[in-house]
From TrEMBL, chain A:
GO cellular component, one term: plasma membrane
Record PROSITE patterns: ABC_TM1
Pfam family for this entry, one: BPD_transp_1
Topology class, membrane: Multi-pass membrane protein
Family, as annotated: Belongs to the binding-protein-dependent transport system permease family.
CDD domains: TM_PBP2 (cd06261)
Protein name: Carbohydrate ABC transporter membrane protein 1 (CUT1 family)
InterPro entries linked to this entry: MetI-like, MetI-like_sf, UgpAE/MalFG_permease
Alphabetically ordered keywords of this record: Cell membrane, Membrane, Transmembrane, Transmembrane helix, Transport
Source superkingdom: Bacteria
TrEMBL record, chain B:
Name the record gives this protein: sn-glycerol-3-phosphate transport system permease protein UgpE
Natural source organism: Marinomonas foliarum
Gene: ugpE
Similarity remark: Belongs to the binding-protein-dependent transport system permease family.
GO biological process, one term: transmembrane transport
Keyword Metal-binding carried by entry: no
Amino acid sequence: MTPSNQHDEKKPFPWHLVFFLGPGLLIYVVFSVYPLLDTLVLSLYNEQQGQSSFVGLQNFITLVTDDTWSQAFWNALGNNFKFFAIHMLVQNPIGLLLAVLLSAPKLRLSGTYRTLIFMPTMLSVVIIGFVWQLLLSPIWGISEDFLYNIGLGQYFDAWLGKEGSALITLAFISVWQFVGIPMMLIYATLLNIPDDIVDASVVDGANSFQTFWHIKLPLILPTIAMVSILTFVANFNAFELIYAVKGALAGPNFSTDLMGTFFYRTFFGFQLQQGSASMGAAVATLMFLIILVGVMLFLFFIQRRIQRFQF
Amino acid sequence: MKLLDRLMPSSGIRQVPKSVTIHAVLLAYTVIALFPIIVVVINAFKERRAIFRDPLGLPDSDSFTLVGFQQVLLRSDFGLYSWNSLVVTILAVGLVLLLGAMAAWALTEYKFKGNLLITFLFAMGIMIPIRLGTVSILSLMVSLDLVNTLTALVLVYIAQGLPLAVYILSEFVRTIPKELTEAARCDSVSEYKIFFCVILPLLKPAMATVAVFTMIPIWNDLWFPLILAPGEETRTITLGVQQFVGQYVTDWNSVLSALTLAIVPVLILYTIFSRQLIRGLTSGAVK
């Protein structure tokens, strides 16, 4: 930096820099960075009848401890961790399996499978939510008939309508839609593993499971870590699926409430409760902190421990 | 694998059942991925009775009907919603590409005070979702008098798309040989001309990847249309479908047709651009 600084004095004002960087930076700062910082500040204020006063951390204390707020907050947070856990335990293993199968050498039609399996990922979460709502509807009965045909008919239930199963069902719908992302990213990493390494392990007498476990898996771990953090951010930001299928009240009895829907209700109000910008900002700030902690943990621990292999 | 075949010629025999298993699993999952979409689309063309009597059957001459689509087009302004989505998506993606390429160029090519800070600021935006700032974005749009305008959506989507665009395009700018720009500078070509005539054309393949990644979340977004532009005149297709299905939830023909109208154009575009998208995903553009 120092040599260029010395030149700066002689050079004319760098108008080209303003031209290239200015417009993009301006829009980004005004409509993304500033609102985010403003939200963090707003969460420290309380607005009543147009008067705003500084209240410190009172909004957060209310959220975490007050009877009317804390129950909804902890419920949404807990649900969100369940939602994330199901993604981690189901979406990523299935994505991994599909990627390994797709990358089998000389596999015919692999491009076609890839394109078709990725298809649901392209559609709006809202549309996917409605599609599954119809398919799982006891009125239409497609799922029920299907389960009877394979002899599991007695297990059918109105899963989306029951408190105990609605959240899990929605998580599975989301997994079904987004399994293409881990599949695609892991598949890309697998393709980049040079044949020599794999061949060498085969020559050493490793079977295909051993080759996968000892050679390929360590090489795709960084990708799995990245997929995990992408899933984490997306899950703690999820709103559309719940809103489309269950509405802002995230029924039945708030059993499908996530941080996103809780944020929406807090900000805009629902039923008798009035919307509050400062409480909404407090919820958004907590979501921000959760996501920030997740991303930091990823950067400092996982990313540091796992070596990136370059070929 | 050639080596393997040479070392163990007999393995060719064992590979047959293995590849059959692989195909069986992949085919099964492909069916799982497509089945729900196909069921919705085929039933949109069937009469109400046929939808319930035989949900898996294809529409035949008896059961074929377009009544659902007529109802959708009659009761809601799907043409307008699609147009709104199209305008917002094209403007936002176009500006993300242009402004993103310009910013990526400036941040990688020039050394100046604050370069690192601005690069970091953009990088943060890749991970921190813009909707966390919604409370302030809404009050900002109110004070700018932009609520219920498509401009509000375009501005927010540019801010949403820029971080990833700047990141991917910066990686790409770094691979452009320095000699190219230095030769141009020796010929005293202006910085503007270097960018627009030399660099921008070279960025095209990376820009295609960025375009696809930027386009999908914008087209599919419900959050910002719902909050910033819920009015009838500015409704996007995703919001329009959401409102329509919520309103006519018991009219199966209409609901299935509305979903089909939302699904089919995306699938057609996806089929056309899937090569580009998948190449972008698998080329390591997003690491």
